[in-house]
Amino acid sequence: MKKRGLLNAPLSRVIAEMGHGDLLVIADAGLPIPLTVARIDLAVRPGLPPFLEVLDAVLEELHVEKAIVAMEMRERSPQLYEAVRDRLRAVEIEPVPHETFKAMTGRARAVVRTGECTPYANVILVSGVIF
């Protein structure tokens, strides 16, 4: 049994397989997920697990060079936006219209669905390299 880090096998596998520039989406419970993209469904009930806890777990294992959020996150969920910004510190956060964000999920390696029910609680993480 794995001792620490991500215990969810599909999520751990996707992160291990990611290369430079690959996309991983951490999503709220309502984001539409394209049928062509792997769905890692962690949602148990509304609020469980929370978006930020899943983001924290992923950030412990994935080197991120850029993040993308919907512009609407800053307007509709400003506290969540600040929490995401605090976690990503020096990483560029690119805001795009929500419709553009949804279209971009079609290029992701996977979408991780949380139980989060806060509006626009979604982020696309762009994988970087550690060298």
Keywords:
131 residues; alpha/beta; 23% strand
User: Which segments are poorly predicted (pLDDT under 50) over 5 or more consecutive residues?
Assistant: none
- Overall average pLDDT: 97
Cross-sheet strand order for the largest sheet: 2-5-1-6-3-4
Strand % is: 15-25%
Distance between the ends: 29 Å
Helix content: 25-40%
- What is the string of SSEs from the N terminus onward? HEEHEHHEHEE
Count of DSSP-assigned helices = 5
What about the largest sheet? 6 strands, mixed
Identify the overall geometry: globular
Helix vs. strand class: alpha/beta
Q: How many beta-strand runs?
A: 6
Rg measurement, Å: 14 Å
Structure commentary:
This protein has 131 residues and is an alpha/beta fold. 32% of the residues lie in helices and 23% in strands. Helix 2 packs parallel to helix 4. The protein is globular. The N and C termini lie far apart (29 Å).
Secondary structure blueprint with pairings:
Blueprint: H1 9-17, E1 23-27, E2 38-41, H2 51-59, E3 64-70, H3 71-76, H4 78-88, E4 92-96, H5 98-104, E5 110-113, E6 123-127
Parallel strand pairs: 1-5, 2-5, 3-4
Antiparallel strand pairs: 1-6, 3-6
Structure, briefly:
The protein is of the alpha/beta class and 131 residues long.
